[in-house]
Design a protein that fits this description.
Elements: H1 2-56, H2 60-65, E1 67-74, E2 80-82, H3 84-98, E3 104-116, E4 119-132, E5 138-153, E6 156-166, H4 176-181
Parallel strand pairs: 1-6
Antiparallel strand pairs: 1-2, 3-4, 4-5, 5-6
Length: 192
């Protein structure tokens, strides 16, 4: 009777060992996937951040290089651009007119959703500060809702399609902080 009991114990130990090994592999795979997604999300955020930096630097070629070769973009004014050459043609004069020595641009409020491991949709708020208006007057802040589809091409993320729309400004004299102090959020702001 001692032999069957030993065999049963050995079988139990093997099953526990395999279960422990399987759990370890699942945990390792999950950690690897999370690390990859975090790295990919950082690369997608860098697309937006580099877009803003290139705008302030008046570097139309760099901004266009963030897009796929035949990528598309709809400007806040509604112009549809396709391909890097069209992007450079539009981005160059835009920055030359709008950017001055005090202009700043930065993305905030990123929301990124992976549709597939190599395709993501990103939404963010681009705020351009101290830009020249078409009449030459300085505009203190221009909020722009910016959405784009990012696709991994080989080992590099690029913008396949982008959409920019002027965001509603907070009520006159109300900053985001002041709105929060008064219990308001930006979606509660009146739209003119």
């Amino acid at each position: 009777m001692k032999i069957p009991q030993t065999l049963a114990l050995r079988g139990l130990m093997q099953r526990l060992g395999f279960a422990l090994l399987a759990c370890t592999l699942v945990i390792a795979a999950t950690g690897f996937a999370i690390a990859n997604e975090a790295r990919d999300e950082a690369a997608i955020r860098a697309l937006g951040d580099n877009f803003a930096k290139a705008f302030v630097q008046k570097n139309a070629e760099l901004r266009a290089s963030l897009f796929a070769e035949n990528g598309t973009f709809v400007t806040p004014q509604g112009d549809y651009l396709q391909g890097r050459a069209a992007l450079v043609k539009d981005f160059g004069p835009e920055a030359q007119q709008a950017v001055n020595a005090t202009t700043q641009a930065a993305f905030t409020n990123y929301r990124i959703r992976f549709i597939k491991p190599d395709v993501a949709v990103a939404d963010a708020l681009l705020t351009v500060r101290n830009a020249n208006g078409s009449d030459g007057a300085i505009i203190p802040a221009i909020p722009i809702n910016f959405s784009f589809v990012a696709v991994r091409h080989a080992d590099k993320w690029l913008i396949e399609d982008g959409r920019a729309h002027f965001a509603p400004a907070p009520p006159n004299g109300m900053t985001d902080h002041a709105m929060a102090d008064h219990g308001m959020t930006d979606h509660m702001a009146p739209h003119n």
